[in-house]
Amino acid sequence: MLEHGMSAELPHVCKGMSYDALGLACYYGRDEAMQCILTHSKGVGPATAKTLSPGQAGGIEALGTAIECGFAEAIDLLLPYIAKRPDITAHSLLLTGAVHHQPALVQQLFGHFERAGRGAEVLEFQDQWGATILDLSLEYGHLDLARFLLGKGAKYDVYRLRGDHSIDAGPQSTLVSALPRTEPIKLLMELTPKPSLVVTSTGLNVFHVLAADDKLIGTSGGHAEFLEVLEYFHGLDPTLIHARGGVEGFTPFHLVSLHYAERLGSFLRAHGADINAVSAKGHTPLDLLHFHDDGDRGVDEHLTVDYRSGKAQTGVAICDFAMAGPVYWKLEAKLSTKLKELYGTWGAKRASEIRTRQSGLPKDPPTITRRGRSSDDDEVSELITRLLLRADPLGLRRADPMAEFWSGGITEYYEGPDGKEHVRHFTG
After folding, report:
1. Which of 2, 31, 159, 306 is 20 to 30 A distant from 224 in Cα terms?
2. Is residue 172 a contact partner of residue 209, using CB atoms and an 8 Å limit?
3. What is the pTM of this model?
């Protein structure tokens, strides 16, 4: 049929498909038919046009199916013809698809691209989440493949993975792909130079990110392995458990609050991390736990996520519970209660309580009780000054004292002309 010019009829055998005869043969893994078509058509004519012509997606789609199905011979026949086409990565995630479905084929596929002069490009190609084939290999535990890719020059200490909205918006490094599993972590840490333990462009380190992995215990790894990973990183750099990072200036303990990461919290506590360290905005880890229950905070400080526009729009997300349903919200309430109880035994404090204790002032805002008319502004100022001097005779804390120590202001109770008690509240 090919030799006598009858191949024009072949594409019409399966009407409505975007494949020609060569594409159909590849789609079904018929490598002998592919070899026949390529030999007799010499790569031109209607039997091969939709597969081999630049800009035609049919061949790339057929090749993608062959990869997912593991048709190695079909891949070897077709890929040399189209490996140089610039649109091949734009239409199909060939290598990332192979990592997902047929990791044993990745080296074979890479060889074709390498011979076409595109090896470096393929190593750097990123999927929609910013992951390269090295990142995916580590995430799925394909360690031999990861070693192969590293040997080919794959970069491993670059901030390219899209940030996890439940942690921080900053791009993440390849090391995050390996967390929280021991073997891929050690594979990376044995490289020269070693990857940085600061794993986001905004300055979060491995302990910050491991807070989000705490809830994965039982799926991506076991409890013993998780503790082994914590001990391993602590042995490499014990200062990381105290370090602030990210756009909010959080310590790892703050991320424990955001993700109810009880196991990591226990580890941090046992190794001397400060549970009352404050973030860039002056919040303690206990503050973050309580903020989830406060309904009167500004939108930028609500720890929930609004996805109506297709991406996270508001504050820091807490685990995945903020975007789940009632069953998860019930679980979240239990986790929150349990962690608050633990924090109580660990001496956790709200930031306002810490400031009050440091100042030596009473915990509750002071009150002015008067009978008769209400006090005018001068009298209120005089009373406030007396209260401050009584608590701080030397006047060491006079600079903006109420914003610093009495965020609630000072309340005055007085009896009005009508004989009833009235209240005035002074702030600022």
Report:
1. 159
2. yes
3. 0.73
